Amino acid sequence: MQVQWYPGQMAKAKRLLRENLKFVDAVIEVLDARIPASSRNPDIRELIMQKPVVAVLTRSDLADPKLTDAWIDALQKKYFAATAVDAKKGRGMKKLLGCLKTIPRQGKFGKRPLRLMVVGIPNVGKSSLINRLIGRSAAQTGDRPGVTKGKQWVRLPGNLELLDMPGLLWPKIENKQQAFYLAAAGTIKDEILDRVELGYQLVSYLREKEPESLFNRYKLQQDLDPVEMLTEIGRKSGCLVKGGEVDLEAAASVLVKDFREARLGRLTLEKPCEQEEENA
Ligand SMILES: Nc1nc2c(ncn2[C@@H]2O[C@H](COP(=O)(O)OP(=O)(O)OP(=O)(O)O)[C@@H](O)[C@H]2O)c(=O)[nH]1
Ligand SMILES: [Mg+2]
């Protein structure tokens, strides 16, 4: 899958991160609970590691709970702390606030609030998380990448200040599997994606790793190859054009949407053990 976006916007976001890092005590790195490894941005790793980093897994409501626990265990070894939330409904906020309270303040802290920068890839839930932490809509959110364009400070009760940042992707996603994960999770603008190709990749992945999710959702009768399976999903979902043929683009859209909304079940695409093996 060829993945391209707007490098200018990303370069600006990275500059913003670099310039503002000196004003904060720590960083919250927001990761998608369904793809915790692929949603880590390697391009900002060195920069943010100058500070304590708290990993927050969003969309835990859409991910496999057991694997989320396993990911938290794995991440706690590498991060200052790690925890999971549902940033849409607001679950896990107390625990997160508890983690944040243990962050050491830099320099002469005095009465100054603890300052945290919230970073992560586009559309991962940074602004939603901030809104949930303060209990009202202070930061703009939306179900597409690129909603937050500039930085925004938000003050919380309990002497805490959060800096919302635009989403950051790295210049080139070399790894095809990672590009697929990021696209499936909704990080890359839908307009610049080949929808049918994403549909094929998703159906191939699920057919191999989570076949019952497809069989149950679309009431499939038999195993088919990925092309036939996507066609069958389209037929079952009423994605037809004149003459009764299946509209593959519509079928792919149905599948991707069903995955993103966990109608195929709570699926985590990346397992922590697989990831360790890959890194080794
Ligand atoms: N189900 C679910 N949806 C979430 C969660 N967190 C965020 N969302 C949804 O994901 C979408 C993106 O959320 P935002 O908070 O705008 O994401 P962002 O990281 O600020 O995005 P940019 O500013 O575009 O980089 C919205 O539709 C949110 O409602 C979560 O934990 N669970
Ligand atoms: Mg945002």
Could you characterize what this model shows?
This protein has 280 residues and is α/β, with parallel strands linked by helices. The chain has two domains: 7-164, Rossmann fold, CATH 3.40.50.300; 194-279, Conserved Hypothetical Protein Ylqf, Chain: A, domain 2 (Orthogonal Bundle), CATH 1.10.1580.10. 40% of the residues lie in helices and 12% in strands. It contains eleven helices and six strands. It has helices at residues 7-20, 45-48, 65-76, 93-101, 126-134, 176-185, 195-209, 211-218, 226-236, 248-260, 272-279; strands spanning 26-32, 53-58, 81-84, 114-120, 152-156, 160-164. Strands 3-2-1-4-6-5 form a six-stranded mixed β-sheet, with helices on both faces. The two termini are 25 Å apart. The mean pLDDT is 90.
List its traits.
single chain, alpha/beta, Rossmann fold, 280 residues, 6-stranded mixed beta sheet, Conserved Hypothetical Protein Ylqf, Chain: A, domain 2, 2 domains, binds guanosine-5'-triphosphate
CATH C-level label of the largest domain: Alpha Beta
Shape: elongated
- For the biggest β-sheet, the strand order reads 3-2-1-4-6-5
CATH homologous superfamily grouping of the largest domain: P-loop containing nucleotide triphosphate hydrolases
Number of domains: 2
* Beta fraction: 5-15%
CATH architecture annotation name of the largest domain: 3-Layer(aba) Sandwich
N-C termini distance:
25 Å
Largest sheet properties: 6 strands, mixed
Secondary-structure-derived class? alpha/beta
CATH topology of the largest domain: Rossmann fold
Assembly state (oligomeric): single chain
Spans where pLDDT lies below 50 across 5 or more residues: none
How big is the Rg?
Answer: 20 Å
Number of extended strands: 6
Helix content: 40-55%
Could you tell me which ligands this complex binds, including any ions or cofactors? guanosine-5'-triphosphate, magnesium ion
